[in-house]
Amino acid sequence: MIQSRVVKGVAAFAGLLVLTACSGDQAGPSGGDSNIVQGNGDVTVVDAADRQPLPELSGETVDGERLSVADYAGDILVLNVWGSWCAPCIAEADNLVTVAEETADQGVQFVGINTRDPSVENARAFEDRHEVPYPSLYDPDGRLLLEFPKGSLNPQAVPSTLIVDREGRIAVRLLKPLTEDELRDAIEPVLAEG
């Protein structure tokens, strides 16, 4: 009886190890922090009167340039948090590129925040592979994400996307990898605000 329990316990532990091994980084050899929370699919839309300002985020881009989100004041800003190691980020990358190109002449700007990539070369390779036309802040230790005040509508997962209105306030938060249609549907009401 005890031997049967031991065998069952060993079998259960072995099964757990297999599941753990299969749930690891599927994005490739680029490294990164696999202890990041992935989104639960939540989409939060905030009424204009209840919106909070986007924190002042600035730093060096993946390409080594200085960037501040304050430079995008007056435009709608799509802020996407991603990592080259993140399989859902890889899945949504081309969708973001397509919508960025479609909306560029409508006053919609895109900026990425590359987080938890231990090497900027991995981030650059990701952007090159997906032909990303917009800049990304390089945030290897996640410090930019800590700029969001506790209790605010912050990007809690990778990937996360925020839509920021023309007044610099967070209008929409999406905690999921996005299709082109989902991204368009999130941008259009903010764009219609005039």
From TrEMBL:
Signal peptide region: 1-27
Keywords: Cytochrome c-type biogenesis, Disulfide bond, Redox-active center, Signal, Signal-anchor, Transmembrane
GO biological process, any: cytochrome complex assembly
InterPro entries per UniProt: AhpC/TSA, Thioredoxin-like_sf, Thioredoxin_domain, Thioredoxin_ResA/DsbE_sf
Main location: other
Gene3D superfamilies: Glutaredoxin (3.40.30.10)
GO cellular component assignments: cell envelope
PROSITE patterns linked: PROKAR_LIPOPROTEIN, THIOREDOXIN_2
Domain Thioredoxin: 48-192
GO MF terms, alphabetically ordered: antioxidant activity; oxidoreductase activity
Location(s), subcellular: Cell envelope
SUPFAM superfamilies according to UniProt: Thioredoxin-like
Name by which UniProt lists this protein: TlpA family protein disulfide reductase
Source organism: Streptomyces sedi
